[in-house]
Specification:
This protein is mostly helical. It has one domain: A middle domain of Talin 1 (Up-down Bundle). It has 11 helices and 2 strands. The protein has a two-stranded antiparallel sheet with strand order 1-2. It is globular, with a radius of gyration of 19 Å.
Length: 315
Amino acid sequence: MLLNFVIFIVSLSALIWGADMLINQSEKIALKFRISEYVIGATLIAVGTSLPEMAASVAASMNGKAEMAVANVIGSNILNITLVLASVFVIARRISPDRDFFARDSSWALFPVLIFSVMAMSGQFGRFDGALLVILMGAYLLFLKESASDTLLGESAEIEFAEDSFSWKNTASLLVAGLILVIVGADYTVSSASEIARGFGVSEWIVGILMISMGTSMPELMVSIVAAKKGKADMAIGNIIGSNMANLTIVLGSAAIVNPISLDMSGYLFDIGTMISATLMLVFITANQLYTKPAGISLLVLLSIFLEHTVTSAT
């Protein structure tokens, strides 16, 4: 038991360190190309931190565990909003993003959730459905590319950036190292936490379902919190929106392409409803610019309802 606690602390430290490296190097790239921190957060970091979800869901699909593959995606999306975004709101001293998330990005937060719900009504996610989901992510990346010109940092902006000190070799190496630390740290964090939970006699079902989604959401949590504490709200919120997009498109789409998924919708109605509710709350918050602690607390309330229902239904 003591060894598991040591592994947990070390792996969590690796997560935090890796997240800090990702933020610092991504900021350098943003400054070099004079593009917004939101675009960096919604693409490079968002897709990178979604790799644990992709690995877990693809592996589950290949092993014929369709329910686990879909549950991981749904649970991760719920946690990204109700835990990650809520933590950003509660921890950050002041959030005043430059980007109008409601006008530019709310539809991209909502569309994949609605498309997922429509596809899931048939109880099947075939290879064609998976390809469509991956194409949807491609459309989102194209949108970010097209809107990048509107989010360029102003030419007259005072930027503390030394062009001579920038090195692609060093930056790329640190980005890869940071991403590895985040992913490996998340893996060992969830595995050690699972062993600790088993040691205390917690249900295997609860450990498997909750710990997988929580564990794979840890990269988003750490990256977003570090970004928020550094005053980079655009990057933090962009990471959440981009990660949720990646989960419902690349992650689920890849799992369906590898092995078509069949699932009984009746067992996921509450979870899907919670995911839709969390997404609508995200849209409402961005529409009214409620980047405040009370908004974070309201998201945590939804999280507590979700966890209470999950634990109760498992017993």
